[in-house]
Amino acid sequence: MSNKVKTGIFIGGFVAFTLAALYPAVIYPKLHPEVFQQIQNETRKDIKQEEIQPGNMKVWSDPFSRK
């Protein structure tokens, strides 16, 4: 094999390995947000945010919403 072919295989393998490593942590949550929203809703259903907010701070609100 020539040097260019070996380099191409190495770079292709590196890109494939990187994408395979990033898929479960980055790509899957972006493609399937409803799964993670459901998990979050189930785990936070008994938590009242107003009661646990530290320092009498205002509960988070969307800064981009219309007033």
Structural write-up:
It comes from Pocillopora damicornis. The chain is mainly α and 67 residues long. It has one domain. It is 66% helix and 0% strand. The model has no long low-confidence stretch (mean pLDDT 88).
Q: Beta-strand percentage?
A: under 5%
Specify the structural class. Answer: mainly alpha
Unreliably modeled segments: none
Integer average pLDDT: 88
Structural domain tally = 1
Helix proportion of residues, in percent? Answer: 55-70%
H-E order: HHH
Number of strands: 0
- Radius of gyration, rounded? 22 Å
User: Given the structure, what is the number of helices?
Assistant: 3
The biggest sheet, with number of strands, parallel, antiparallel or mixed sense and barrel status, is: none
Shape: elongated
Put the structure in a nutshell.
The chain is an all-alpha fold and 67 residues long.
